[in-house]
Amino acid sequence: MSIFPAETITVSTAIASTVAASTELPLAKEYAWDFGNNDFLLVDGKFIIVTGKEAIKMWIWKALKTQKNKYRVYTVKYGNELETLVNSGLSTGALRSELERYLKESLLINAYITGIKNIDISIDGGKADVGFIVESFYGEVIINA
Question: Closest Cα to residue 127, out of 99, 106, 97?
Fold first, then answer.
């Protein structure tokens, strides 16, 4: 008779059997924004919280309005670098390419966002209009920026 178990168990198997792996994300939540007054949306002096698809819209809007690495309250990955393209001297083609890359880099860090498609970039002089569809766990979100 041996003091060792008859079955060989690896450390990774032992750990996996005791740790519950969860790939589910909690419900997305964000504070609502009053676009007309450029401030948080309040009702009776209280912040309104939106969830799901509306929360994803709020997150996208904030990420596209926030310059990357400017505010210490955000992680180094949050925000965008679109401002660096102003007066960059890039050709129209290169500018389109960089706009698309910066959009994807700034939005795909969100675990709820699964993809970006149908990016439409219109450049007229010093102005760029961008439209695209964000694919998320809550469905598609159409953005016109």
Answer: 99
The token duo for 141 is 């979100």
pLDDT at 14 over 70: no
Q: Domains (ranges, CATH) in the chain?
A: 25-144 (3.10.450.40)
Task: In whole angstroms, give the CA distance from residue 117 to residue 120.
Answer: 9
d(CA 40, CA 6): 63
Specify whether the CB–CB gap between 138 and 60 falls below 8 A.
no
User: pLDDT (tens digit, 9 = 90+) per residue, 77-103?
Assistant: 888 888 888 888 888 889 899 999 999
> Which residues touch 120 (CB under 8 Å, ≥6 apart)?
130, 131, 132
